[in-house]
Amino acid sequence: SGFITLDSGYKNTGATKSAITFLDGEEGILRYRGYPIEQLAEQSSFLEVAYLLIYGELPTQKELESFTNEIKVHTLVNEDMRKIFDGFPVNAHPMGILSALVCSLTAFYPESMGSVTAEQERLSIVRLMAKLPTIAAWAYKNHMGHPVNYPQNRLSYCANFMHMMFALPVEEYIVNPVIEDALNTLLILHADHEQNCSTSTVRLVGSSHASLYSSISAGINALWGPLHGGANQEVIEMLEEIKADGGDVKKYVEMAKNAKTTGFRLFGFGHRVYKNFDPRAKIIKKAADKVLSSLGINDPVLEIAKQLEEAALTDPYFVERKLYPNVDFYSGIIYRALGIPTNMFTVMFALGRLPGWIAQWKEMRETKEPIGRPRQVYVGHPKRDYLDINSRS
Ligand code: CMC
């Protein structure tokens, strides 16, 4: 009906009003509910930030305690879900396991579907926050062929995750505070990023009044792609390839400059919105240096990353197109230092992004947004008549 404006990739089209995250791509500013990302990364905890995103204000001590305790009550995952989990092949990508098991929560908690009460919605939120780390650690254990570790609720959110990932069955696992702290920072930096691809997916799916679990599962799948959250895995694979190839970063910069013919992009470079720098990348680069030096790790890949950054940032191709390192460029280096394997990197991103997805889903439902239904410009055949199969050439 009438005139349709076409904006492929929504480069200039706002899809919603939102009071959650402020982002200024020209100035490199990112704020959650008004609070600068630099302050949150430095001073707060991931659960505090999750509360802030989801409920709109920083929690009081009492609110944070009750949010944390409630999450602890729900960290176990129904043992029947293990049967689904056990069916995955050992080389299943952890993101596939994550999205499938999150979607299956809809089957285990059918009351999360349809019109839900405020109390049921609150429970779904808490369950997701509580169970996603457990499911994520299971996905890793599947890959390793190891028995799963049950959650330890005496530990913090981050320490419990590291315990479920790395503790051996009969030994107590002591989480290094440097690691706990680094994980906390990474999760905070990933916690929300306004209307990115996965968040828009969560809102779009949720706009049909699909359950929170199915909406988040769809978001996980959107995040998986290499142009979005999957980029962090691609970055490390690229850096390792450069290293194996003799460390000639200039060669790769040249290849990326011909992205149109080579099909090769520098992963971890460029961003749809940030055109001067990605404030998260600044924080992560510093954190990577700090973590590696305090753990006494000398990762040659970090050196290659720095050389590659330098080579790209002094090349007119990258300068003209305003392509800077994004959040994914250095995050993988920290994940590696934490002992997290490459194919788990995007899962780590999902753990961090969860509160943002939840907050955006909740906002979308509370503001009673209509069902999302983009239009199109049709460019196919005009009307033509059906041909009998024998008459087709
Ligand atoms: N390497 C080489 N050239 C690039 C790159 C890159 N990484 N990124 C963009 N370009 C070029 C692109 O070829 C185009 O050139 P031209 O003007 O000659 O046509 C120009 O820069 C603009 O690129 P675009 O694809 O139109 O920009 P976009 O806003 O549609 O895409 C992006 C943004 C992040 C998908 C893209 O920069 C990219 O593919 N980067 C690599 C993947 C990556 O690191 N993704 C993580 C993003 S941050 C975290 C997240 O959201 O998950």
Automatic annotation (TrEMBL):
Signal peptide coordinates: none
Alphabetic keyword roster: Acyltransferase, Transferase, Tricarboxylic acid cycle
Reactions catalysed: oxaloacetate + acetyl-CoA + H2O = citrate + CoA + H(+)
Protein's GO biological process: tricarboxylic acid cycle
TM region(s), chain numbering: none
GO MF terms held by the record: citrate synthase activity
Record's GO cellular component terms: cytoplasm
Active site per UniProt: 271, 328
Pathway(s) served: Carbohydrate metabolism; tricarboxylic acid cycle; isocitrate from oxaloacetate: step 1/2
SUPFAM superfamilies, alphabetized: Citrate synthase (SSF48256)
PROSITE patterns on file: CITRATE_SYNTHASE
Domain of life: Bacteria
Pfam families referenced in this protein's UniProt entry, alphabetically: Citrate_synt
CDD domains, per the entry: EcCS_like (cd06114)
Family annotation (PANTHER family): CITRATE SYNTHASE
Similarity comment: Belongs to the citrate synthase family.
Protein name: Citrate synthase
Organism: Xanthocytophaga agilis
